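Feature request, filed as a ticket because there's no other form

It would be nice if the structure record came with a short human-readable summary line next to the tokens. Right now we just get the raw output. Example of a typical job, pasted below so the devs can see what we mean:
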Amino acid sequence: MNNQRRKDIKAVITKLENFKAKFEVIADWIEDLSDLRNEIAEIQQDESDSFENMPESLQQSERGQQSEECIGYLEDAYSELDTFVESLQAIHDETFDAVTDPLNNASQD
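Raw output as currently delivered:
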């Protein structure tokens, strides 16, 4: 590889590193979304505890059925948000290294 191409690769790496610094806002999103996910888990647990503490006859009633349905919705919301947070985390952690590592290797040759 000639010096000009090495220089071009290093310029691309520098641009990627600058973009990576801007990309750090995703870390804040991950933290905020994780907090929301935990809030959903707490609400779901409170609802589950409430349902479990109901007399069996109340659990069988319309109110009990609504509580169970709500618990299911909260579990679904938690699961979907958890998947989203994990996806963002993977993007945040792996994307730039997956691009810059091969570029660094290419510029060394």
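Something like this underneath would help us a lot:
The chain is about 90% helix and 0% strand.
Residues 3-104 form one domain.
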